[in-house]
Write a structure and sequence with these properties.
8 strands; five-stranded mixed beta sheet
Length: about 100
């Protein structure tokens, strides 16, 4: 997994197990389920109550970029196995919510 720190500051806690990514033990995504024949970008955001959301909300926490599915053959019938090495995780600094 490629990791980009978008800005300075504390980032969200996360861990990766296989094709799954966990954010603060609150939100889990199996990234292999999101792979398509086109690039996919998943926004992870946080609201004023510090609840994580896979989608748009008030504060960005992370962006996950999954590149388009690759194929072993020109007919596009046999996909290359999903690899977390191709995924990019962009981390944003956490916003202090009062």
């Amino acid at each position: 997994m490629n990791i980009i720190h978008k800005n300075e500051g504390q980032k969200i806690a996360f861990n990766v197990e296989g094709t799954k990514i966990f954010f603060r033990d609150e939100l889990m995504l199996d990234l292999s389920k999101y792979e398509r024949d086109y690039d996919v970008e998943i926004d992870i955001c946080q609201d004023d109550d510090q609840i994580l959301i896979a989608g748009l909300s008030k504060y960005y926490v992370a962006n996950i970029i999954i590149p388009a599915r690759q194929y072993q053959d020109p007919e596009k019938t046999v996909p290359v196995p999903f690899s977390m090495d191709n995924v990019t995780l962009v981390l944003w600094a956490l916003v202090e919510v009062e």
